[in-house]
C-alpha cells in the first residue's frame, strides 16, 4: 500500500487531458468549500471568513499544480469577500479587513509556494531514481557480460593447456599441465555460478553439492560418495564464496588422490555458521596422515593452494588425522571475513 501511495504522489500534480479540466475541478472544490463554510456559519463565531478556503487552496495546488492553485487562492478570496466580509457603507475597507485580506494572501501564497517546490523536488527525485535504476540495470548487464567473458576466457585457457599437454612427453610436466587446466576450468565454472552483481548470493548447500559431485566425476571415480551438510538458505558474498568453493574443491580432490587412491570411501563436507563464525570441515575415511604432518612440507599442491586461499580470507586452515581413521581438513573464518 505504501508503494502505491508513493507512486501516486510521484505523479502529482495530475496531468489531465485538457488543462481546462483542472480549473473546472478547482472551481468545484472552491464551491464545496463555500458550501461547507455556509453550513458552518451557525456554529462558528463571528469572523473566520477563510477557514474553509485554506484547505481548498492546498488541495487544488496539491492535485493540479501551480496555476490551478493560484486560481483557487484568487477565487476563494473573492468568495470570502462576497459572502463573509461585510462591505462598509462608504465602500472602503477598514484596517482590520485589509489586514485580514493581506494575511489571507500571505498564507495561501506560502502554501502554494511550499507545495510547488515540494512537488518539483519530488519530481526531480523520481527522475534521479529512474536514472539510478537505469544505471543499475546497465551495470548489472555489463557485469554479467564481463563475468561471462572472463569465465569463457578461463575455459579457453584451460582448453589450450589441455591441447598443449598432448605434445608433452614428460610425465611430471604433463601432470602439471593437466592440473593447471582442470583448476582453471574449475575457477571459471565457480565464478560463473557464484558471482552475483545483486550481491544476493546463492544457496551454498545446493552449490557445494553440485561442486563436489563435479569434482568426483572429474576424478573418474565411481566408488567415492560425498555428503554435504550445510544450513539451508546460507549464502555468502561472492568474494568469500568463490575462495571457499575452491578450498572445498581442492580438499575433496586431495582426499580422493591421497586419502583414497586405491579404494572406495566417503567424504563429508560440513559447513556451520556459529554466531557469525563460519566453520568448514572436509572429512574422509581414507588412509589418513601422520600426526606430525605439515602442509608446507607436503607434496600436495592443492593443499598449499587451499592454505593460501584461507589466508586470503583471514581464516585458519589446518589438516588433522581423524580419530576413527582418515583425515579432516578444517577452515575457520572469523565473522568480519564474511
UniProtKB/TrEMBL annotation:
<keyword id="KW-0472">Membrane</keyword>
<feature type="transmembrane region" description="Helical">
    <location>
        <begin position="96"/>
        <end position="115"/>
    </location>
</feature>
<keyword id="KW-0812">Transmembrane</keyword>
<dbReference type="GO" id="GO:0005524">
    <property type="term" value="F:ATP binding"/>
</dbReference>
<feature type="transmembrane region" description="Helical">
    <location>
        <begin position="20"/>
        <end position="39"/>
    </location>
</feature>
<dbReference type="Pfam" id="PF02518">
    <property type="entry name" value="HATPase_c"/>
</dbReference>
<feature type="transmembrane region" description="Helical">
    <location>
        <begin position="51"/>
        <end position="84"/>
    </location>
</feature>
<dbReference type="Pfam" id="PF07568">
    <property type="entry name" value="HisKA_2"/>
</dbReference>
<dbReference type="InterPro" id="IPR003594">
    <property type="entry name" value="HATPase_dom"/>
</dbReference>
<protein>
    <recommendedName>
        <fullName>histidine kinase</fullName>
        <ecNumber>2.7.13.3</ecNumber>
    </recommendedName>
</protein>
<dbReference type="InterPro" id="IPR036890">
    <property type="entry name" value="HATPase_C_sf"/>
</dbReference>
<keyword id="KW-1133">Transmembrane helix</keyword>
<keyword id="KW-0597">Phosphoprotein</keyword>
<dbReference type="InterPro" id="IPR011495">
    <property type="entry name" value="Sig_transdc_His_kin_sub2_dim/P"/>
</dbReference>
<dbReference type="InterPro" id="IPR005467">
    <property type="entry name" value="His_kinase_dom"/>
</dbReference>
<dbReference type="InterPro" id="IPR004358">
    <property type="entry name" value="Sig_transdc_His_kin-like_C"/>
</dbReference>
<dbReference type="GO" id="GO:0004673">
    <property type="term" value="F:protein histidine kinase activity"/>
</dbReference>
<keyword id="KW-0808">Transferase</keyword>
<keyword id="KW-0067">ATP-binding</keyword>
<feature type="domain" description="Histidine kinase">
    <location>
        <begin position="145"/>
        <end position="337"/>
    </location>
</feature>
<keyword id="KW-0547">Nucleotide-binding</keyword>
<keyword id="KW-0418">Kinase</keyword>
Amino acid at each position: 500500500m505504501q508503494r502505491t501511495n508513493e507512486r501516486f504522489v510521484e505523479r502529482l500534480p495530475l496531468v489531465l487531458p485538457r488543462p481546462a479540466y483542472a480549473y473546472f475541478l478547482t472551481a468545484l472544490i472552491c464551491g464545496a468549500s463555500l458550501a461547507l463554510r455556509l453550513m458552518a456559519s451557525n456554529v462558528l463565531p463571528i469572523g473566520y471568513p477563510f477557514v474553509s478556503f485554506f484547505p481548498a487552496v492546498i488541495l487544488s495546488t496539491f492535485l493540479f499544480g501551480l496555476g490551478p492553485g493560484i486560481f483557487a487562492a484568487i477565487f476563494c478570496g473573492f468568495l470570502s469577500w462576497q459572502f463573509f466580509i461585510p462591505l462598509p457603507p462608504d465602500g472602503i475597507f477598514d484596517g482590520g479587513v485589509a489586514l485580514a485580506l493581506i494575511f489571507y494572501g500571505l498564507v495561501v501564497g506560502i502554501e502554494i509556494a511550499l507545495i510547488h517546490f515540494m512537488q518539483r523536488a519530488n519530481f526531480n527525485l523520481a527522475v534521479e531514481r529512474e536514472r539510478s535504476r537505469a544505471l543499475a540495470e546497465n551495470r548489472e548487464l555489463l557485469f554479467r557480460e564481463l563475468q561471462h567473458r572472463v569465465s569463457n576466457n578461463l575455459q579457453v585457457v584451460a582448453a589450450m593447456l589441455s591441447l598443449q599437454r598432448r605434445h608433452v612427453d614428460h610425465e611430471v610436466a604433463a601432470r602439471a599441465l593437466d592440473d593447471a587446466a582442470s583448476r582453471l576450468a574449475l575457477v571459471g565454472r565457480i565464478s560463473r555460478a557464484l558471482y552475483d552483481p545483486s550481491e544476493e548470493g546463492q544457496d551454498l548447500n545446493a552449490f557445494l553439492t553440485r561442486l563436489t559431485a563435479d569434482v568426483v566425476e572429474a576424478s573418474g571415480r565411481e566408488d567415492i560418495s560425498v555428503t554435504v551438510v550445510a544450513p539451508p538458505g546460507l549464502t555468502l558474498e561472492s568474494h568469500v564464496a568463490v575462495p571457499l568453493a575452491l578450498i572445498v574443491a581442492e580438499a575433496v580432490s586431495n582426499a580422493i588422490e591421497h586419502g583414497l587412491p586405491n579404494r572406495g570411501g566417503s567424504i563429508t563436507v560440513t559447513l556451520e555458521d556459529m554466531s557469525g563464525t563460519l566453520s568448514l570441515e572436509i572429512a574422509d575415511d581414507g588412509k589418513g596422515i601422520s600426526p606430525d604432518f605439515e602442509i608446507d612440507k607436503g607434496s600436495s599442491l592443492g593443499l598449499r593452494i587451499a592454505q593460501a586461499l584461507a589466508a586470503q580470507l583471514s581464516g585458519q586452515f589446518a589438516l588433522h588425522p581423524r580419530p576413527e581413521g582418515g583425515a579432516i581438513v578444517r577452515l575457520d573464518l572469523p565473522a568480519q571475513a564474511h
